Amino acid sequence: MFDFTSARFPSRFARVLGAAAALALTAGAAQAQKGETVKLAYIDALSGLMGPVGQNQVKTFQFLTEKFNKSNPAGVKFEIVPFDNKLSPAESLNLLKAATDQGIRYIMQGNGSSVALALVDAVNKYNERNPGKEVIYLNYSAVDPDLTNSKCSFWHFRFDADTSMKMEAITTFMKDQPDVKKVFLLNQNYAHGHQVAKYAKEMLARKRPDIQIVGEDLHPLAQVRDFAPYVAKIKASGADTVITGNWGSDLALLVKAANEAGYNGKFFTYYTGVTGTPTALGTGGAGRVYQAAYSHYNMGGETQKLGNEFKAKFNDDLYTWSADHILLMLSQSMANAKSTDPVKVAKAMEGLTVKSFNGEVTMRKSDHQLQQALYISVWQKADAKYPYSPENTGMTLVPVKEYESYVSSTPTSCQMKRPG
User: Fold this and answer.
1) In whole angstroms, how far apart are CA 259 and each of 256, 292, 390?
2) Is residue 131 located within the same domain as residue 70?
3) Is the pTM of this model over 0.85?
4) Domain carrying residue 63
């Protein structure tokens, strides 16, 4: 991915589109910030039930940063500074202050839209009160659609596909699955979980009005240790399919309980590939558990090589590829702006299109939502064609459908307020 002569990504950064990008890629502009260190604050859970996910993602950012530091269009050196927010919005605001007190002007967060919503508001206020010291918030996986709709901000950029975009892909796939007739919605009781249920009902009613929603439940985020009672409700409802936005321990423990209870229905998920869930699934769920995401474990090319290298180094799996999008677009925007100043970089990132591991991706100017292809993949045994096995389970996620960005794209109501 970072070998600019590779067959998969020839002259990768030179393939950034647009006149501004072309001008910026002259020798002088490309090295405008050569040697400058840019600190990126990572504010997410590094302890507690969701700690393993955060620990994996810190390693991902550090691993990819090491690659980008060898060569990027701006010539900068990125440094990841981790902060443990314990999945708490209040703690995250304290850590935002700690980061800005250290002079860090780029913050990253992704696990928990409740945290993301609090951070967007705090960053807006901070930037209003501190002209000349503005901060950009780079969101790699908090997917509540409100973040790029009613709560959209010039200072916030999202690199994952939002809840509605992934549900667009899931329901487009489900409409052609005649055996899906009765659906149960089980989600975490916070912003993202509420939105999963909302969009599932809306989109299924439009695409497959014959499908019945036979049950719906919410549970506390990162607190439930035994999902047997929830699985009992699912079985009692007669559901042949479960739609869940659960992630981390909340998905791993759910599928473990479903396996133990002998539930044989389908699961449509957002985060099957995330830490803990592959092990919980094991060989159970083969052909029945689906994921909608902007990547999968068997992408091929340089992406595959990096995934294999990451596994060899950490005995862990690289799944947060939005980290790559952040580093790619951030470095390109700095080169285009000939500056690391967040205001100039934010303006350069708006509308930016680059060629990436999942095709051509664009940071939509109107709401700062990355437009990108999405994949539906299914859990099954690894084989010669799809060999990568997460958590050494002998299983993998095999792509069964790819949706180009225009298919999964959803409209925005954002009324962006930009600095003068």
Assistant:
1) 5, 21, 18
2) yes
3) yes
4) 8-161+302-371
